[in-house]
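Let's study today's protein:

:::
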Amino acid sequence: MHGPAMPLTPVWMLVLLCAASGAYCLLRARRADGGTRGAAAGEAVMGFGMAAMAVPAGTGPWGPPVLLTLCCGAALHALWLLRGGLHHVHHLVGSLAMAYMALAMAAAHGHGRAGLPAVTGALLVYYAGYVLLGGARLVTAGGGSHPAGTAPGAEGGGGAGVAGGAGDLTPACRLAMGTGMLAMLLAM
């Protein structure tokens, strides 16, 4: 999140990590079939949106109103994805969390702490749990996080570089974006 709460070097590392995750998800969306393309595109939007949110204040032409508009668009996309099942709820939570942070930035005008403690606390608990669960899944023998109700490899059929396959970085990207969101919320 913008502001003096985070030193600049880790902030730019977070920007780079989120942008790289977004780029990977965009490439994954390009080669995915129709069933997984929407989820991969949603994750790409989240990655690029988080990268934009993490850019230090005054660095670019964007501001809280532009970020809020982008996050609301992402939330509408996440609502559209919910037609395919509840495993897309995380995209909606993430989009709404980013919209909340954009509103908090606008209210604080770049100075001091912002946001409602109860909302920030609930989001912190959600993302701490998400990161811990994602990390645990990543280090287990089967590895990877799979949408609710699907088996490993069901996202893309397996194989190196394919979603759910041996060379897939999707679980690591999800973990990186979850960690980035947790860091931005902690900085509020």
